[in-house]
Each structure stands twice: as structure tokens, then as C-alpha cells.
Here is the input.
Amino acid sequence: MTDRPVYLVDGARTPFLKARRGLGPFTPVDLAVQCGRPLLMRQPFARDAFDLVILGCVNVIADEMNPARVAALRLGMGAAMPAFTVQINCGSGMQSIDTAYRYIRDGGHDMILAGGTEALSHAPLTLRQSAVEWYAQMAQSKGPLDTASQLAGIKAEFFKPIIGLERGLTDPITELSMGQTAEILAHRFGITRDQADAYAVESHKRLARAQDQEFLAGEVMTAFDRDGTHYDHDDGVRPDSSMDALAKLNPVFEKPYGKVTAGNSSQITDGASWVVLASEAAVETHGLEPLARIVDSEWSALDPAVMGLGPVLSSTGIARRQGLTREDIGLWELNEAFAAQVLSCLAAWEDADFCKDVLGLDAAFGPIDHDRLNVDGGAVSLGHPVGTSGNRIVLHLANAMKRKGVSRGIATECIGGGQGGAMLLEAVA
Here is the structure.
């Protein structure tokens, strides 16, 4: 049996909201529902016409176990709608698309709602292991004397929780934070602080331009919280960002000479995104107009200490399998975990030795034109809600390809833990 074509028909996301002090206005499921409702309302078919719902989410909160199912029910998709959640760190939102793509391609399903959601402001605080053991002993104490004895062992540190997000952004194998892995790449490929800052400034300017010229209209759905406050744009953008302003920031991970600062790193944000995937039969049945066709996908793995190079491995793998050159790819969406990490990926593709030794190419892959890369900004300016970003870059790539009349594009990302993901899209005639 030949593979069936799979189409990306439509999609929507919430604004990405910068996590500030305290909980954000939306939980992960709240976010998924906020962009899911208007997306489903504009479809010409009933909400129960889908075969399946798949949602990427990393920081699942206790009140929303299996957020895919909770979101599907709140979206009115019916009690009979199967739904499951996937997690592969930064690639979770793309993994939902990839899983749906394979299900439809192989003939088992015709229409799937695939998304990603993350509310990093709701990431949990956790107790230290010593505190957990003390509480357990207290629960087992018998009688006043035993309880008093246990109370005598109380320590001040028991009341100081650990920020779960901080541990989550630290690799458990290498004990390196994600920012430290970006510093390793900057050192390996000679990326300077000025280069990283200049990239960050451009990311903000591109997003500001996209907002001003309404390039994101139809993609970004206004979200309304329970108090009626509305959120209609990515609020981390700084149109007035400048080299002088960024130069005043201190390195975060490798003081005093590191290249990675808060200003040239992705922002901690809350946000969700969905895409509708359909088979050819579903497109014809419902009279749908696809944005793009999903051609191929690739997952790669490498040393967690250099996880930021994951996009180089996965994207090159797709290009080789499809017989494509660098010039055949009209647009790239490469998730901006860190400016230095993106610049290191670009440098790796131009490094003949790296391309021969690591990618198995005969020569350098070559330079990627900056005018084809993240044309409307990226995570440095709009944020990186971990479980969502992989979904957003695929959705935005499809929209940008249509707007610019581009025939092929690749969306790709690095993944914490030492992995990378990539997806090839093709325009629909």
C-alpha cells in the first residue's frame, strides 16, 4: 500500500504570554481551549468529525492529568473522542503532529486535531527529598512522644521549595542547564556576544513587523481569562530592542565571559497551538482548502551536552532522504532556544569538517540565507512554551509559505536531553 498524502488544513494558537511573577491567567488546558474554540468554530464540519486528539505538554499540572482528553471534552468534541498526551520535551508539539501524520498516512485515520500547550508560569514547586522523608516519618509517628521526637528533626530547608522549572531545564545526565549547552556551542563555533545580541535584536524587530503588518492575523486567537481580560498579541516582544540595551545585561550561565544572557535567550512563556490534519478523502468530503502537505519528518539524537545541534542532524536527514539541496528549501523555522544555539547550527552547516564527520556529507551543507530563516521572529522575541513551540513553528511555516508563495519549508528544533526534530512541508497547488 502506498503512503496516503497528509494535509495541514488549518491551525491557530494563543498569544504567547510572558511568565512574570506568580501564576499566569491560564492553565495548560485553558490555553488549549482558548485557541481551540475559534479554530473549531470556523471549520465546516462537526467537532466530533475528528478521529483523534493528540496534545503535547511537558509540565502537566495535577488537576489536568492527560490534558488532551480534558481539552477535548471542554472543546465539546464528545465523550466518545479518544485523546492522548505526548511528551518529548521541546519537541512535544511537533511530536503530536508527527504521530497524527503517520496515523493518517498509514490509513488508520482521516482527520486528527494535533496540538501543544504549556503554562510555564504554572510549573510546580517541589519539596526537597529530605523534606519528603521528614513528612513521611511524621505521618507514621505514633503518640505524642514520637511526634515530638519527629518535630525536633525539623529544618528550615524543609520550607524552601525547589523551582520545578529550574530542575526541568537541567539535563539529569550531564547536569548542565540548557543555557550551559548553548555556551558550549558558542565556544565550539566561535559565536561572539555581539553576534548573539544582534540576532536577538533582529528577532524582536521581525516579530514587531509581523504584528504591525498583521501577518499573524488568523493564526493568533485572542484569549479571554475568567475576569474578562483579553490578550491579543505576543507580549514579550520589544520593538525598541537595541545592541546598547542588550550589552548591559550580564551573562546568566557562564559569568563573567559567557555569551548567553536573558536578552538573547528564549523567553519563559505560556501558550498553546493546534493544527488540523486531514487525509485526501477528508479534504474532499468536507471541501477543505489545505495550507500545505506534510512530506516527511525526522527525529535525531546526540550528546545532551550539545543538544542545540539537533536541528542540524534532523533537517539534514530529511534533505538527504528527499534528495533536496539547501537551495530547495525556501523557508526555515528553527526554534530559537538561544540566539547562540541558532547561530551555531548555521555555523555547523557551513563547517566542512563537521558536515563530513558528523553528517556524512561530502562537503559543507552551506549557508542558510537569513532572509529565509524565522522571517517573522522566533522564541527569542515571542517565547518558548516548551510543549507548544514545535507545533507553532509548523503552523507558522505553513502560513508563511502560503503568504510568500514558497514551495518547500522545514520546521526544526533542538530538544532538551539531546534530540532534534524536523518536518518538511510542501505547498499545495
Remarks:
- The first strand starts at residue 6 and ends at 13.
- DSSP finds 15 helices and 14 strands in the chain.
- The chain has a mean pLDDT of 94.
- The radius of gyration is 22 Å.
